[in-house]
Amino acid sequence: MSAPTTxxxxxxxRALFAPKSIALVGATDxxxxxxxxxxNLRNHGFPGRVHLVNPRTEVVHGQRAHRSLTDIGExxxxxxxxxxxPAVLSVLREGAGLGIRSxxxxxxxxxxxxxxxxRREEEILDxxxxxxxxxxxxxxxxxxxxxxxxTPYGLPIxxxxxxxxxxxxxxxxxxxxxxxxxxxxxxxxxSLLTSMGNETMVSVTDVIDYLVDDPAxxxxxxxxxxxxxxxxxxxxxxxxxxxxxxIVALKIGSSKIASHTAQAxxxxxVGDDRVIDAAFRQLGVxxxxxxxxxxxxxxxLAQVGRIDGRRIGxxxxxxxxxxxxxxxxxxxxxxxxxxxPETVARLKEILPGFATVQNPLDxxxxxxxxxxxxxxxxxxxxxxxxIDAVMLLxxxxxxxxxxxxxxxxxxxxxxxxxxDANRPVMVASNILTDITEFGRHVQEETGFPYVAGGIEHxxxxxxxxxxxxxxxxxxAAPVPPAPDTRPVVHGRTSGVWTESRAxxxxxxxxxxxxxxxxxxxxxxxxxAAERFGYPVVLKAVADGLGHKxxxxxxxLGLGGADxxxxxxxxxxxxxRERGLTGIGTLVQPQRSGGVELLVGVVRDPAWGLTMAVGxxxxxxxxxxDSVLRLLPVGADDIRRALAELRGARLLDGAxxxxxxxxxxxxxxxxxxxxxxxxxxxxxxxxxxxxxxxxGSRVEALDALITWD
Length: 708
Fold this sequence. Notes:
Layout: H1 10-17, E1 21-25, H2 32-43, E2 49-53, E3 59-60, E4 63-66, H3 69-72, E5 78-81, H4 88-97, E6 102-105, H5 115-130, E7 134-136, E8 142-144, E9 163-170, H6 176-185, E10 190-195, H7 204-213, E11 219-224, H8 230-242, E12 247-251, H9 266-269, H10 272-283, E13 285-288, H11 291-304, E14 312-316, H12 319-331, H13 341-350, E15 361-362, H14 373-381, E16 389-393, H15 404-420, E17 425-428, H16 437-446, E18 451-452, H17 455-476, E19 496-497, H18 499-508, E20 517-519, H19 522-532, E21 536-541, E22 554-558, H20 561-577, E23 584-589, E24 595-604, E25 608-615, H21 620-623, E26 626-630, H22 635-644, H23 648-651, H24 662-678, E27 683-694, E28 697-700, E29 703-707
Parallel strand pairs: 1-2, 1-5, 2-4, 5-6, 6-7, 9-10, 9-11, 11-12, 12-13, 14-15, 14-16, 16-17, 17-18
Antiparallel strand pairs: 3-4, 8-10, 19-29, 20-23, 21-22, 21-23, 24-25, 24-27, 25-26, 27-28, 27-29
């Protein structure tokens, strides 16, 4: 099947997730799916009517069953469909005639099974479109609207069902219950959990749009096997960024695409997983690598929201924990700056004499004697002017103590200090364990904030929160406009355009290119060299020849006519041995010094034109120091991309070299990106390698273009 299209508008999605009555069609005591769905609706607070439909049995799950939807005899808002695969369309036909507009189809056996299943799925989609129905599934467990107590979901829901600020959307039925259980174990309340199934009609993007508008949802958590509609996904992600709602995504499948741009070095730098990383960063989507981090990071972001800076103050009762946190913070790009002198002075007044006042701060085991010590130290650190946020290490109690009232008083006082703090405070436990019933009671009674489970996951979540806070404004900004002029193109756009032709295209469109001249003979090569002045570079030219250096087709530093003649003869001989046509050489003035960059654009099959910027020349595939951006992209973002390179200091003038004019570099790269975007869908790849940067001189020394 083709990728699904938007079928459900905002009103239809609200109706899907908030029915006042539900019919379970195909309900039977013989099915665990049916019993689980019925029990979920009965036991988790669904306020409406639940009708059971089974044409062969009068009583199902201890309740009267109707022979058909028509037999119910009163309006129904949603049908939950569990009938055999061939009967699904008949249920939709009957329901549509009765005015039922919302459907969840649990039944499998559709597009996931092969051609016949795809045909059945297409029939459902066509019928739903014609009759303005909204269909979630098929082959999906349904959803859990925890805040409304609406739970048409085909697997048992463990108690207690916690409503809260995190909306979860999953392209996996099997993992949905595990994620639900883990969220409940860590006291992360959910607004909505949706198991998408085949996404025949309602897509992940439809649910994201619903959650962006949902006042109960603060954070959107995604488990993705694929991004089926990149353009719509991008629009929804930007809507979420503008609404200030983080999207946290676990995207599986990191295998690299087989590059169909083998002529370009860029193809070796761009793979599916790196493109996903680049797309998510530009869209303000937080990417995580585990199910635990998906829920823990979402819970933390729902608690603290935006963090304006990466300078973290750490308050713990453990020296060992300080060292673990310090290591992880460095890995996450977080800063642990020294405390200000006034902070140090205030901490010395309250800490025991044997404590070392530093960041991270170990208040020592004296917390056993003075239970207020951790909270008072937190209060001081939160006032430090050089700190953007505070990480507090504090486990919730696991067992009921001898004096529960004293524990509630202590956690209540700390919770109040956190609410009164001048900086966001993020609480973490030492290790990842379930929150016990008493720990949950303490949180509910005292208003103690969300506790991120375990130092490892907590620091990962804090790093993600800091990065999202720095990227969300850019993600919410308008997309840079596409070029308003068509590029100048001479000749047929097909096959491979090697250096001479590709460089001419760059020059025709305002991109600085090193001077060059083609030479068919030795005399031509010498004449060009003397016109440019020695030393010169001589390069092989042949139809379809990409990587000249791989066959010995480049000669550098030629200092006179004899050297040029000899180089021309040798290079042409190599080309003739390989049976190439259109052979000759290209002569250019020798450039030395500066920094060589690669700027390459390739067309990703899902996300479209993707630009790689990195250290170039012959080292590009060895160093693999590059960053990716999806087009269109502006000069400001290109400057940020250059700063992300491991070799960025080379552009700053490391070891006494001339610093690059980064504004000029970004301007030229932006022109290359604009040219690529303007060349239309026939462009497969465009690569400039190297782009020489020497102070304010920015010049393309070689180029290659591949057309589809």
